[in-house]
């Protein structure tokens, strides 16, 4: 299982190679990409920051949960930190399984739980200034 | 204890890590109170801040030990 949260370029090929195996009938890949707007405001770029050690442990636990829930083979996750421009890939989730249904379901579970639980934050930098997404502003 | 700060908390303190001296028996809440005295703007994050002690989420009553890593966490927004 490859789980990585770091300020390095992501590799779809590396994720696929990590989860591929002769017993697998399919690999489901989710790519998160940087959108050009946030709550109606134009976005210039995003800055991701993570508590990387804890984020990797959290994603490891999520992948373990997915393997307990579905008969899947392997899970690979890479999440980038640092500055990302519009259209760039911020996260890759790859899940291999003997059959496609489980690969799709487990892949969705991993990205949904990652977004809920992993200590990773993004700052939206755009026309309305800089906003830490998800946090109330300190003056709220 | 070694305090780790990210995102908004890091910006408010002007640093991502610092060492906090606390009396024996101090809790997470005590650590947050001390941080709020050092960086008054930190107090305004109290309503949405959660805590991790040695990378495990804990509540504010959790006692801290010498050498612990205490992280302040705001609502996450990865992906």
Describe the structure.
The complex is a heterodimer of chains A (140) and B (79). Chain A is of the alpha+beta class and 140 residues long. Helix content of chain A is 31%, strand content 40%. In chain A, strands 3, 4, 6, 8 and 9 form a 5-stranded antiparallel sheet that branches. Chain A has a 4-stranded mixed sheet with strand order 1-5-7-2, with helices on both faces. The mean pLDDT of chain A is 95. Chain B is α+β, with helices and mostly antiparallel strands and 79 residues long. Chain B has a 5-stranded mixed sheet with strand order 2-1-5-3-4, with no helix packed on it. The longest helix of chain B is centred in the middle third of the chain and has 11 residues, at 28-38. Chain B is globular. Chains A and B meet through β4, α2, α3 and β8 of A and α1 of B.
- The proportion of residues in beta strands of chain B is 15-25%
Helix-strand makeup class of chain B: alpha+beta
CA radius of gyration of chain A: 16 Å
Sheet bearing the most strands of chain B, described? 5 strands, mixed
**Beta-strand content of chain A:** 35-45%
Radius of gyration of chain B: 12 Å
Strand order of the largest sheet of chain B: 2-1-5-3-4
Share of helix of chain B, binned: 10-25%
Structural class per helix/strand content of chain A? alpha+beta
């Amino acid at each position: 299982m490859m789980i990585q949260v770091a300020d390095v370029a992501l590799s779809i090929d590396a994720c696929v190679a990590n989860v591929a195996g002769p017993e697998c009938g399919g690999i489901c890949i989710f790519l998160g990409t940087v959108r050009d707007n946030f709550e109606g405001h134009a976005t210039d770029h995003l800055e991701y920051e993570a508590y990387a050690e804890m984020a990797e442990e959290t994603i490891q636990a999520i992948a373990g949960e997915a393997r307990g829930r579905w008969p899947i083979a392997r899970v690979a996750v890479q999440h980038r930190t640092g500055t990302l421009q519009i259209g760039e890939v911020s996260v890759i989730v790859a899940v291999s399984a003997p059959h496609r249904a489980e690969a799709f379901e487990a892949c969705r579970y991993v990205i949904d739980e990652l977004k809920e639980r992993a200590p990773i934050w993004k700052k939206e930098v755009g026309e309305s200034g800089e906003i830490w997404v998800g946090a109330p502003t300190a003056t709220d | 204890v070694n305090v780790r700060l990210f995102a908004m908390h890091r910006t408010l303190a002007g640093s991502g890590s610092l060492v906090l001296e606390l009396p024996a028996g101090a809790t997470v809440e005590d650590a947050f109170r001390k941080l709020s005295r050092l960086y008054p703007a930190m107090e305004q994050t109290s309503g949405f801040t959660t805590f991790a002690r040695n990378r495990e989420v804990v509540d504010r009553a959790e006692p801290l030990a010498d050498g612990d890593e205490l992280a302040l966490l705001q609502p996450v927004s990865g992906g």
